[in-house]
Amino acid sequence: MVAFQEALRLDPRNAAAHNYLGIAAARAGKLAEAVEHLAEAVRLKPQDVEAHYNFGGALMMGGNTDGAVAQWSEALRLDPDYAPARKAMNAALRRGKTPSHNRTTRP
């Protein structure tokens, strides 16, 4: 983790360092820090499928299902064969965690 912190000190626009620090923060239960790093990784490198997947995971851990599904959807738009994003999204949808903009109400 120290190496990635040093990488950011040298180059604050290092998307890979933000991605890995976000993963480490999420694993340590520091969700706000994880979301901050992962959001920056996606902003700096929007074509990074794994960053979108990781960002979605951190958002899901924090209870932001809509945000998580949006990130996983973007990962799948970039790479329709990216199995981890498909698996995560399918699991969320099976648990009834559908995005609010896709929910239908029944009378």
**Element string (H = helix, E = strand):** HHHHHH
CATH architecture: Alpha Horseshoe
Helix proportion range: over 70%
CATH topology, anyone?
Answer: Serine Threonine Protein Phosphatase 5, Tetratricopeptide repeat
SSE inventory with pairings:
Layout lengths: L1 H9 L4 H13 L3 H14 L4 H13 L3 H14 L4 H12 L13
Question: How would you concisely characterize the structure shown here?
Answer:
The protein is an all-alpha fold.
Commentary on this structure:
By secondary structure, this protein is mainly α. The chain has a single domain, classed as Serine Threonine Protein Phosphatase 5, Tetratricopeptide repeat (Alpha Horseshoe), CATH 1.25.40. Helix 2 packs parallel to helix 4. The C terminus is likely disordered.
Q: What descriptive keywords fit this protein?
A:
about 110 residues, Serine Threonine Protein Phosphatase 5, Tetratricopeptide repeat, disordered C terminus
